[in-house]
User: Fold this.
Amino acid sequence: MTAPVLDVRDLQVAIGTTPVVRGISFQLAPGERLGLVGESGSGKSLTALSIMGLNRDPIRVSGGQVMLGGTDLLGLSRAELDRVRGARISMIYQDPASSLNPLMTVGAQIVEAINLHDKVERGQARARAADLLGDVGVPNPRQRLDAYPHEFSGGMRQRVMIAIALACQPEVLLCDEPTTALDVTTQSLVINLIDRLCSERGVATVLITHDLGVAAGFCDNIAVMYAGQLVEQSSTGTLFANARHPYSHALMSATVDLGVDVTTALPAIAGQPPLPGTIPRGCSFRPRCPRAVEACADEPIDLLSLDGSLVRCIRPISSDPGSGTHPGTARDAAVDTPAAQERMPNA
Amino acid sequence: MPEAALLSVKDLVKVFPSREGKELRAVDGVSIDVRRGSTFGLVGESGSGKSTLSRCILRLLRPDAGTVSFDGQDMASMSAARVRRLRSRIQVVFQDPHGSLNRSKAVSDIVGAPLAAHRSGNRAARSARVAELLDLVQLPAAMAARKPRELSGGQAQRVAIARALALNPDFVVLDEAVSALDVSVRAQILNLLRELQGELGLTYLFISHDLGVVRYISQDIAVMYRGRIIEVGPREQLFAAPQHPYTRLLLDAVPIADPSRQRARMRLLGEQTGASDRPDLPDDAGCRFRSRCPVGADRERCATEDPRLEPHAAGGTLAACHYAGEIS
Assistant:
């Protein structure tokens, strides 16, 4: 493997003294797209904010390293970090409306991003900003430079955010639920755009999403998070064909897409994720897991290599070549039947 | 109004003033019939008018034209006292479970509030009814003493459902009721809603932007676009053979959890003109979808004649398109 552009090693994040991200490690190869998938509270957004050094009290990084090239971002001063953020690593957020400055024209905001890292002359910066705006698919980019964020639709605002994030040709782009606030027809366009721009520019991408369908179409590899840990990491094709961790499997089965059987109850996961500070001993998913045995409670479970994937489970789902490629065809063993959960009231 | 319809909306219009003295026709002549005991799904993107329509049905907004009939009676012509009685039969569950619960009250007070408001029974009877309701939504009795902030999203939504059921309604509007929930919890709540419908004979109006969820829970589905219903029909027909290009586009845009198929869909969609975040054309004589339409963008008739919602030979739905069916 070529040297990773981003190497996150045992990242730990706490709110006060309560651990919320509990030892996340992953590597991102140049040009790779990694999906970080999980439900709310799984720690996926905190992981991204911690990589960018954007945590605020009482949230703080309590351990680990974030290596960008040969530099540990966690060891940098504020001033040093400011030189890296936006230039070599940048981020786009869920809500474009609140991430743009409503009082500045979008042109001024793009020029600002360019000027922070490249000292170019005014007219040149403006020309580059117009090019960027055109690249992200904003019609009439030259005129639109002088427009304010409120004059753009939600999808167009997210395009402006992408232009700002890519203004200085970063090596790594973190996308935190970039299309969650957008309509479904706009969502697919914005994902297509990120896809094309990152390919053209060789930008490695981490896509944080709760939407397995979005991850399926975009990512080379996917890491599934649960209760502050990675529970499974694997190539996208392998994960969707044959998820090995009971949580990943159950999450796919519980997804209500256009292929679900409308005649029966959905294979829901009983219970709810543990709150930070109340994470059970042993496997965090154990109380909700239909495959759990006593040994699952004994000690922390390691992320182990299994047929080319990483899986944090001592009773992983077997590799089954007959299970088909779509989770819709494999809604089975790992999932609670509705009857079994009937009086599992805690969600 | 068909015999079996519990709720019937006819030619409903709701206009809001917008900037520069213009009008925004948020709901522009909508008619729907919700069959007793069934679920009617209303899908649309933001700004399509689906929530305005539901607020008109709930009488949270007063429609500018058209009628809403419940159980055969026009609600606009009813006396205030009658509307008040009727209100107990029509309930609503909103999207944000925490935002719609009073944070300072205990769960038992929240669920019991409609009983108190309608002076139903004495204290002991109300308390027994609250216990029954918590059991109905599969929450443990101990939850009664909790405050909303001590509840997870799924638990809070169960409380909101229990409150909606307190007065034994016939009809429940579910306005993006599962949209804020995580995948694993969403499936639980959808299962619960279906069980409750079976047990209590409820009729649902289910409003959502999520086609997968609407398809799962609804027998009849209407697709809204800029204040109009552009296609409506039984679930099977609508999904198997959508007649309107916008319905087709929506179906194509839903991500599916299958890597190779999803990649192919993304490529295809990138080439479609209709998947656009360009501003729409102003309301004029023509079809309001035509600026995004892959079928009628350049056709004379689409620019001059507003299509009516009507049956077409190719499918089992009603579609508002001059060239319905051409896309599929």
Summary: Chain B has a mean pLDDT of 90. The CA atoms of residues 196 and 202 of chain B lie 7 Å apart. Chain B touches chain A through 53 residues (CB under 8 Å). Chain B has eleven helices and twelve strands.
